[in-house]
């Protein structure tokens, strides 16, 4: 059976978790706590993913370390050919949406998440120093520098404005896609990876203070979509 290395609070992990739940994919769990930086400190995990990021998937000798790639790998190997993933009329659009979300998350959603976590809450000097020490040892230098910048409260108003603008544009894009598709889902008539990605995005934006129910006037399709997705059993994976 495949093993998934993840954290419940990791944006990228959440996309995989909700997709696996929706598609009834079975897996062994290896849970990390990102706030304790367990994924960086675990020496064994360095052999799985030298970059020290989550999620990662291990299937025998095969290792996949990216949310979109993990979902696509599992879809190709473990879902029946009749699954909507194999619908050639929408598969490229679904893939592109998932990849675009990666770019939205890093740096824009990541910036606002870290901004709220470190710049709006009081942390002890000991806690800050602990995280800074780990950031300096992060195997991914860019991630380490980003973490250190957040802990030191160095995000500028311009960076926050750029992140907010990118998220606003992404919400507009989702609204247009839902309006054009005239379906319960983003692409086609069934649940795809894009829906797993989108619902995680909307939930994270809610946690950042962007409440979809307040967008009903300018984004009625998105608000209704969020309410529909909340009724699916896979949504519970995002709340654990």
Shape: globular
Distance between the termini: 23 Å
Instruction: Quickly count the domains.
Output: 2
Strand content: 5-15%
Count of helical segments?
10
Major β-sheet, in short?
A: 4 strands, mixed
For the record, the CATH architecture of the largest domain stands as Up-down Bundle
CATH topology of the largest domain: Glutathione S-transferase Yfyf (Class Pi), Chain A, domain 2
Radius of gyration: 18 Å
Widest β-sheet, arrangement of strands: 2-1-3-4
CATH top-level class of the largest domain:
Mainly Alpha
In total, the number of strands is 4
What report would you give on this structure?
The chain is an alpha+beta fold and 240 residues long. The chain has two domains: 3-84, Glutaredoxin (3-Layer(aba) Sandwich); 91-233, Up-down Bundle (Glutathione S-transferase Yfyf (Class Pi), Chain A, domain 2). It is 57% helix and 6% strand. It has helices at 11-23, 38-41, 43-48, 67-78, 91-118, 125-137, 141-151, 157-181, 193-207, 220-230, and strands at residues 3-6, 28-31, 56-59, 62-64. A four-stranded mixed sheet has the order 2-1-3-4, covered by helices on one side. The radius of gyration is 18 Å and the shape is globular.
Can you give keywords for this protein?
single chain, 240 residues, alpha+beta, Glutaredoxin, Glutathione S-transferase Yfyf (Class Pi), Chain A, domain 2, 4-stranded mixed sheet, 10 helices
């Amino acid at each position: 059976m495949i093993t998934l290395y993840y954290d419940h609070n990791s944006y990228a992990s959440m996309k995989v978790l909700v997709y696996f739940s929706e598609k009834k994919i079975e897996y062994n769990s290896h849970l990390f706590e990102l706030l304790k930086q367990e994924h960086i400190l675990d020496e064994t995990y360095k052999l799985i993913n030298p970059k020290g990021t989550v999620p990662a998937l291990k299937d025998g000798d095969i290792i996949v370390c990216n949310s979109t790639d993990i979902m696509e790998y599992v879809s190709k190997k473990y879902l029946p050919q009749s699954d909507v993933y194999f619908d050639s009329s929408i598969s490229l659009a679904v893939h592109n949406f998932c990849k675009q979300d990666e770019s939205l998350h890093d740096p824009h959603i990541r910036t606002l998440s870290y901004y709220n976590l470190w710049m709006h809450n009081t942390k002890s000097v000991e806690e800050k120093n602990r995280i800074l020490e780990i950031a300096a040892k992060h195997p991914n230098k860019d991630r380490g520098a980003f973490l250190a910048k957040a802990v030191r409260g160095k995000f500028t108003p311009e960076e926050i404005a750029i992140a907010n603008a990118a998220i606003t544009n992404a919400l507009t894009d989702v609204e247009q896609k839902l309006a054009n598709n005239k379906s319960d889902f983003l692409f086609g008539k069934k649940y795809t990876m894009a829906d797993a990605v989108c619902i995680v995005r909307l939930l994270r934006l809610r946690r950042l203070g962007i409440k979809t129910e307040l967008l009903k006037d300018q984004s009625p399709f998105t608000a209704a979509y969020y309410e529909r997705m909340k009724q699916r059993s896979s949504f519970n994976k995002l709340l654990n």
